[in-house]
Amino acid sequence: MTTDSMDELFVEGLQELYYAEQQLLDALGTLADQTDDEAASQAFSEHRDETQEHVNRLEQVFEQLGEEPQTKQEQVVDSLIDEHEQFAQENDGDVLDRYNMGVGQKTEHYEIAAYGNLTSLAQKTGHDDVADTLAETLREEEDALEEVTEASEQFDQEEVAG
Question: Where is this region: Disordered (predicted)?
């Protein structure tokens, strides 16, 4: 990727994140449906609804920047989804539940890094309103990570006790 400016780098990052959030909408629905653990399934379902709001916010950000909302393929997210699909075909039950929680955590870490980076770039390029919007989503992603982490820890404790 050759980029001539911080503004271009910022827009390309937004396009990748817009792609990622759209891919994650479907993936979170799948995780919620195939996870038997109630707390984890609920966390995935709630985060799917929240992710739709993130997509809407990114569209607003593009509008604020005078850019058409466009996606740019993000290989990290594609790899996480492909890896999950392969694992889910070969596993089920508690093993799949725990795997899904791990995938949820990996995804949240990716989103936290992406939103953190773009928030910083928005500030650097003088888009303070956009930075505020991205920072709001960043906080929500951090909360989602905390939820799926708590669900994972609770699941692990139940497995040890059971």
Answer: 142-162
